[in-house]
Design goal:
seven-stranded antiparallel beta sheet; 25% strand
C-alpha cells in the first residue's frame, strides 16, 4: 500500500497564527499575526488588495478567481487561517454486482452506477470524452488507474469527499467575514463554511479573540477513514456532519493568547471528530515561548516573531549529538554546544546541524524503508525523539549481523556529515555558511522547465531558518547535498486593531503574473528581509485602482 501512495507534497505546507488580547498589548486592542505556508510558485498564490464599497472596507490576501479576502482585516475584525489536517476523504471498495457489471452492491441490494460523460476540449487537438461512474459514496476513481491493486474487476474504488457536496457555499462565508464585527458575527459567517477545513483565529475591536474549526467533518458509522473500507455493507458509511458545537473552539482564554501552528487541537483520545494528521508542536512551542506572559506587546514585536529563525528542532535534538559523539571535528562540536540555535544564514553551525540531522534520519530508518526513504526523509522529530528515547531497536542496521546502538548511529551520522560538508565547502568549518547550501526556489510551472529560457521563470533566494523556526523554511536535501525549500510563508500579515497604521502585509512574489512586468516579483526582496507593506483599508493609497460602477440611469 505504501508503494502505491502518491509522492508526498513538498514539506512546509502549513501555517502559523497567534493572537493576543488587548489586555496584553500596547494599543489596548488585540493583535493578530498569520503566515500561511504554501508552495512558493511563480506567479504567487496571493494578490494583495483593499476593497471598498458602501458598507464595505476590507483588506488582505485574495486569490485569483476568488472574489473575497481570504485572510485580512476590516475596521473591527482581523482573521487568519491555519490547516487542521482533518481527514475529510474516505476510499470505499465497492463490489461490482456479479450478475451485472453496470451495478454495484449496497446494503439495500444491487444499484446501478450513475454514469455521465464529460468532454474536455483540447486546443489544437481533438476533444477528449471521459466517462465518469459514480456510486452512493462518490466518483469511481479506479477507472483512471489503480496503483493499489484493490480494483480487480470485481471491485472498484470510490472516493467520498466533503468537497463533493452540492450544497457547498463556502464563498458566502468570505463575503460575511468582510463585514463581520463581533465574535457572534464570525460564528454566523462560518455557518456557511464547508471546506477546506481550517482553523480560523479572529480578533475584534471589542477585545474578543477566538479560534474556530471551520468546515464540514464527516461522522463515520464506524472506523476512522485511514484505510480503504468495504462499501457494500454500509458499516463505514458517513451518517452526517459534526455540528459546530461539537468542533474544537476557543474563546477569550484566561491566558489572553491563542496559538496554532498546525499542531494538534485536542488531546489524544478526544479528537475522534477531527481525525487526521498534525504537525509536531515545534513552532507552536516557540510562539508560546516568545509570547510568554509579556504585556505591552506591539505589532513590531509580532513582526520580529515572524522573522524568528530559532530552531526548536535543534533544542530537542542537539543534546543527543553532544552526549553521544566527540569526533571528528571536536572544535565544531564545541561551537555547536555554545550555539544559540538560531538558523542564521551567515553562520556555520546551522549547516553542521542540518547536515548531521539529515544523516541521522538516514542512519535510523533508511535501512527499513529502502527505496521509499528518499520520498519520506524529512524532519520527523516526534519519530526520531521516540527512537532515541524509547524505541532504540530502530537504531539497529537491519543489513548487518551486529546490533548497532543509538549512540553509534548518532556518531556515524556526525562523521558522514562532517566529511560531506568538508568535501563541498572546504576543510575550515569556520568559513561555512548556512545560506551557501540552503535556498528557496520559486518555479513557474511549466515554463521554468524550458532549457535555457527556464532561468527567466525561476527565483532563487538564499535563506536562513528551518522547518521548526517561525520563519519557516522546510527543506529537502538534494542529490548535490544542498537543502532546497519549495514551500513556506507565502504571505505574512500583522494586524493591530488599536493602531491600524502599524498593520502590514506582504506576499512572497509580486502582484503580476507576467514575467516582463515590474510587479512580477518586486515583493520578494521585502519578503526575504521581513519587511511589510502598509495594510490600509483606503483604496486611494493603492498604486492601482479598479472601479466598478453601476451604469448611468437614462433620463426619460
Amino acid at each position: 500500500l505504501a508503494a502505491a501512495l502518491p509522492a508526498p507534497p513538498p514539506p512546509g505546507l502549513g501555517s502559523n497564527i497567534w493572537a493576543v488580547s488587548g489586555k496584553r498589548t500596547a494599543s489596548g486592542r488585540p493583535l493578530l499575526a498569520n503566515d500561511p505556508h504554501l508552495q512558493l510558485d511563480l506567479p504567487g498564490a496571493w494578490y494583495l488588495a483593499a476593497l471598498e464599497a458602501p458598507g464595505l472596507a476590507v483588506a488582505g490576501g485574495t486569490m485569483p478567481a476568488m472574489p473575497v479576502v481570504v485572510v485580512g482585516r476590516n475596521p473591527a475584525l482581523a482573521w487568519g487561517l491555519t490547516n487542521t489536517g482533518a481527514d475529510v476523504q474516505d476510499l470505499f471498495v465497492e463490489t461490482v454486482d456479479p450478475a451485472d457489471g453496470g451495478r454495484y452492491l449496497t446494503p439495500d441490494g444491487s444499484r446501478p452506477f450513475a454514469v455521465r460523460s464529460e468532454t474536455i476540449r483540447v486546443r489544437f487537438g481533438r476533444p477528449e470524452t471521459l466517462t465518469v461512474r459514480e456510486t452512493r459514496h462518490g466518483p469511481v476513481i479506479s477507472d483512471l488507474g489503480d496503483p493499489t491493486g484493490l480494483a480487480d474487476g470485481r471491485h472498484v474504488l470510490a472516493l467520498a469527499w466533503t468537497a463533493f457536496d452540492d450544497g457547498d457555499v463556502t464563498l458566502t462565508a468570505g463575503f460575511a467575514l468582510a463585514t463581520a464585527r463581533t465574535a457572534l458575527e464570525v460564528d454566523r459567517a462560518l455557518e456557511a463554511f464547508a471546506g477546506p477545513v481550517q482553523n480560523l483565529v479572529y480578533a475584534t475591536a471589542r477585545d474578543e479573540i477566538g479560534l474556530r474549526l471551520a468546515g464540514d467533518l464527516p461522522i463515520r458509522r464506524q472506523g476512522d477513514g485511514w484505510m480503504p473500507v468495504p462499501g457494500a455493507d454500509g458499516r463505514h458509511d458517513w451518517i452526517g456532519r459534526v455540528p459546530a458545537a461539537g468542533r474544537p473552539r476557543l474563546a477569550d482564554p484566561l491566558s489572553g493568547q491563542i496559538v496554532n501552528a498546525n499542531n494538534r487541537l485536542v488531546a489524544p483520545g478526544r479528537g475522534d471528530a477531527v481525525l487526521g494528521e498534525w504537525e509536531p508542536a515545534l513552532r507552536a512551542r516557540r510562539i508560546e515561548t516568545l509570547l510568554g506572559d509579556r504585556d505591552g506587546v506591539t505589532a513590531a514585536a509580532f513582526r520580529a516573531m515572524q522573522a524568528d529563525q530559532h530552531s526548536t528542532l535543534a533544542d530537542d535534538m542537539l543534546p543527543h549529538l553532544l552526549r553521544a559523539s566527540r569526533a571528528p571535528a571536536p572544535d565544531l562540536l564545541g561551537a555547536l554546544a555554545a550555539w544559540d540555535r538560531v538558523m542564521a544564514a551567515d553562520r556555520p553551525e546551522p549547516l553542521a546541524f542540518a547536515a548531521w540531522y539529515d544523516e541521522l534520519a538516514a542512519a535510523l530508518y533508511a535501512d527499513e524503508l529502502g527505496p521509499l526513504f528518499a520520498a519520506y526523509r524529512g524532519l520527523r522529530p516526534d519519530f526520531v525523539r521516540l527512537v532515541l528515547e524509547e524505541r532504540p531497536v530502530w537504531c539497529d542496521d537491519v543489513a548487518t549481523a551486529e546490533i548497532e546502538t543509538c549512540a553509534a548511529r548518532i556518531a556515524l551520522a556526525w562523521t558522514r556529515a562532517v566529511e560531506r560538508l568538508a568535501a563541498r565547502h572546504g576543510a575550515d568549518w569556520r568559513r561555512w555558511r548556512w545560506d551557501a547550501a540552503h535556498r528557496v526556489e520559486m518555479h513557474h510551472e511549466p515554463l521554468s522547465r524550458i532549457p535555457f529560457l527556464g532561468r527567466l521563470f525561476r527565483l532563487v533566494v538564499p535563506r536562513g531558518g528551518d522547518g521548526s523556526s517561525l520563519d519557516v523554511a522546510h527543506y529537502r536535501r538534494e542529490s548535490d547535498g544542498t537543502f532546497v525549500t519549495r514551500a513556506g510563508p507565502s504571505y505574512r500579515m500583522v494586524v493591530d486593531l488599536g493602531a491600524p497604521q502599524e498593520s502590514g502585509f506582504v506576499a512572497a512574489t509580486g502582484q503580476s503574473g507576467h514575467f516582463l512586468s515590474r510587479h512580477w516579483a518586486d515583493l520578494t526582496a521585502l519578503w526575504a528581509t521581513h519587511r511589510y507593506l502598509p495594510m490600509q483599508l483606503a483604496a486611494e493609497a493603492a498604486e492601482h485602482r479598479l472601479v466598478l460602477a453601476p451604469p448611468m440611469q437614462r433620463q426619460p
